[in-house]
Specification:
Number of strands: 5
Largest sheet: 5 strands, parallel
Strand order of the largest sheet: 2-3-1-4-5
Distance between the termini: 13 Å
CATH class: Alpha Beta
CATH superfamily: P-loop containing nucleotide triphosphate hydrolases
Radius of gyration: 16 Å
Length: 180
């Protein structure tokens, strides 16, 4: 690969739709195809407490962390960047694009509420019930905000679809799948 792709792929979606699983599967598919890549689950770039007084949602810290890690990844050579997280506004897209220095192209993953609830319940054990309740109370509202924002290039339903198959759909959309 002669140079970086001109965009970053962003797996967008509410809690429990399978973003992290699909992110891993995209990496597996790209590796199997011999394509250089870097993966980032943006949730890990803002998990810090307490937050700064002027950055109540840790978005500034998150963007700085993403920029630093992306700069480090790029020292290993050109690669396709794939991120997963939540985008609900053009400001989110602008922040991520500025952090990585290129356009961010989101694909929204969705699932039925019953599927999401089952996935969330399997994620949190009895010692983390507060986390479960927090996510259960918010996933539908977040999905509605994402749909209303209408920022995604396409929408992929993850119900009854294996993460590897969703990864194939995503990579096909970007013409990075097998044979591309």
């Amino acid at each position: 690969m002669a140079d970086d792709h001109a965009y970053a792929i962003f797996l967008n979606g509410s809690y429990g739709v399978g973003k992290s699983s699909v992110l891993d599967a995209v990496g597996d598919r790209l590796a199997a195809g011999g394509r250089a890549f870097s993966l980032m689950d943006v949730d890990w770039f803002h998990r810090s407490w307490p937050v700064a007084a002027d950055d109540s949602e840790n978005t500034v810290v998150e963007a700085r962390n993403i920029a630093a890690v992306w700069a480090n990844y790029r020292t290993a050579g050109p690669r396709q960047l794939v991120l997963s997280g939540v985008v609900t506004s053009s400001a989110d897209l602008d922040r991520y694009s500025a952090a990585v220095g290129m356009p961010v192209r989101p694909i929204r993953l969705i699932a039925r509420p019953t599927t999401i609830e089952a996935r969330l319940r399997s994620r949190y054990d009895r010692h983390r019930q507060d986390h479960l309740e927090w996510h259960l109370e918010r996933f539908a509202q977040l999905a509605e905000r994402q749909a209303a924002a209408d920022l995604d290039e396409c929408v992929v339903d993850t119900d009854a679809v294996a993460p590897a198959d969703v990864a194939d759909i995503v990579l096909c959309h970007f013409q990075l799948g097998a044979g591309a």
